[in-house]
Amino acid sequence: MGFEIGTFLPLFFSAVAIGFVASLLGLGGGVFMTPLLLLSGFVATQQEAAGTGIAAVLFTGISASIAYYKRRAINARIGLFFMPSALAGVFLGGYIAGSVRSSWLTIAFGIFLLYPMTMMLLGKTPKELLPIAKGEASGLKFYVLIVVLGLVAGTATKVFGIGGGTVFVPSLIMFLGFDIVAAVATSLFVMIPTALASSVTSWFAGTLHPELAVPLILGIIIGAQIGPRVGARVPKKRLRQLFALVLLYAAVNMILNGLR
Question: pTM of the entire structure?
Fold first, then answer.
């Protein structure tokens, strides 16, 4: 594994910015890292971008989960229920990533970006979309929900290199009656084993590039520490709308890149 200063520094400083923004927007950072790696030419395929970016998302989940654990905000019982199906989703995503053309996955990710982009354009994040619980699943409905959401989030983690929070957080609020803080904390808790499994499988598949992952990890850790310190002075709604335009640009370019 060799590091080139011309690669390390751009990725490091980009990751600092991503960590800063992600900590303010309540995102894991994967929605920015995958387009960064692919559209900037650091990697050649969607599989490599997702496999490398998810390693940095793993450290986002660990760092944030420690903070939420100290606040006793994590619902470990529900999180442990989700983990088996989420891990199964990672392996399902691995099969999909290995069977589907990279260009199709690139187009799919570009389309997926339109969801968080729309939320941020409205000045919101996915965790704020459903601020009031609509009901609580129980019995068979609960177990079906656990399996379906876990599979979807795990598959998205592997295929797109994201943490799965865009799936988990609104669903925990909507269907299980979680408040926002508990939903985010529990989602991050589930993110750790799924991101770890995705990173390990990507390593063995040859789609995780450590020389690219290390500067991303270092940068996003630093950026995530800076964000909360200055967050009180930043108009979050305007910041989200600004980065919605960045995501729109990335989404359009991902789709066009996949169509070529």
Answer: 0.78
